[in-house]
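Z., the sequence and structure:
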Amino acid sequence: MAYLTYSEYDTFGYADLSAGEFNQLIGKASDFIDSQTRNFYQFNELEEDIPFRRDKFKKAVALQVEYMYQSDATSSYDVNTPQTWSIGRTNVSEASRYSNTGRNEAPSILSDDALLALSGTGLLYRGLGGIN
């Protein structure tokens, strides 16, 4: 379920994508945000929710779209690039931004910015019970 239209995305002023590029990413971006919010808006009407939570959720979806566009990744497989690779006698090693020890730790397909947008909304709550 897509929670955001292209015109809504455009108003945030994030990465400049075409409508076609947006349409390719919005479905998966919505699914990734759904997984973090425990499918809250699968069971509750987004447009009828309080503006604060609704707007933060839409911003999180927009940030996820932007992250997927900028990283050119739509799956965890795409985002996991090798840290070391060789072509002939040329070897390239990249430091990990996920580990100060240099160990190869996998980055997440989820945007940290999107998760920050959701913080404080209650949508990331992991305890028992629901959000009212």
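The mean pLDDT is 87. The chain has two domains: 1-74+109-132, 81-108.

Let me know what you think.
H.
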